[in-house]
From TrEMBL:
<dbReference type="InterPro" id="IPR014710">
    <property type="entry name" value="RmlC-like_jellyroll"/>
</dbReference>
<dbReference type="InterPro" id="IPR011051">
    <property type="entry name" value="RmlC_Cupin_sf"/>
</dbReference>
<keyword id="KW-0479">Metal-binding</keyword>
<dbReference type="InterPro" id="IPR051610">
    <property type="entry name" value="GPI/OXD"/>
</dbReference>
<dbReference type="GO" id="GO:0046872">
    <property type="term" value="F:metal ion binding"/>
</dbReference>
<dbReference type="Pfam" id="PF07883">
    <property type="entry name" value="Cupin_2"/>
</dbReference>
<feature type="domain" description="Cupin type-2">
    <location>
        <begin position="70"/>
        <end position="133"/>
    </location>
</feature>
<protein>
    <recommendedName>
        <fullName>Cupin type-2 domain-containing protein</fullName>
    </recommendedName>
</protein>
<dbReference type="InterPro" id="IPR013096">
    <property type="entry name" value="Cupin_2"/>
</dbReference>
Amino acid sequence: MTETQSAAPRIVRYGELVPCKTAFIDAHTPGSDQKENFTIIGGGVSESPDQHVHIRDTPGFNIGAAGQPPKCRNSLHSHRTAEVFFVLKGRWRFFWGRWGDAGEVVLEEGDIFNIPTGIFRGFENIGTDYGMIMAILGGDDAGGGVIWAPQVIEDAQAHGLVLGENGSLYDTKKGAILPDGIGPMPVLSDDELRAFPEPTTLDVVPHYVARYWDLMALSDKQPASVIGADALLRDKPGFDVDFLSRSSAPAGQYTVDQNEVLMPMRGHWKVTWDGGHDVLNPGDTCLFPAGVAHSVEPSMTGEASLYRVRSNDDPAGPTLAR
């Protein structure tokens, strides 16, 4: 590999994303059985060996996506590290709490949600067409899997899916059985469940949600700092997120010491580096390694916006307060 080739970014196109329809324990549960999970950068948290991973090397965080038709939902679960979503397509309702009734928020296209770590959360497509949300997960190993609310595990068993204590799924309707020495994933006890916070909508939305059109206004002169030190949203989840619009795109090439991922929301963005150039479209994901000089700018007139994610040295979890 030449020096020029090693400096080239790695790009995953939206139209080339490979879905997995059996990624999680609720893959057979009515109402959740039409989900598509995408693992773009890093191994993510999929429980299925069928999950395709586009880029296995991680830049300090994971990138994934969820695609769902209308009225399809993702069941209540929690993560050990951060989970940040922005809506690429559609209209989505996010809800949280032990039973999903502690609070909720509806997000439109371009809105971003830094979900507080350590709470049960779920989401559903409440739009009229197939929707897509892009996800950023903290840490290189995405925290070691998913913690499901007890009712999700119980419902899944009734429809043939059993999650082993090793984190792998077994489809009993296809004749799969748990290997010797591997038991089913135990459900959380009442004492363990009480340790999960139940924040209200007023606790969460003002501090963890940023609206697209607010970010467009804030990025008029310079990139809007969405997540990170002294940023708009609370918690430092192990990566920084900035929002760029046409008027705040950096002038010329720049180099940073962190790995950088570019995720266009609207418009077409030209990226250049020594020896090459390309155009990114909404839904594409572009990874530039640390130390590679590059530029990014809108390539056509009209609305243009982009989320930029950079690794940092923060732990892959929340600070809960500034």
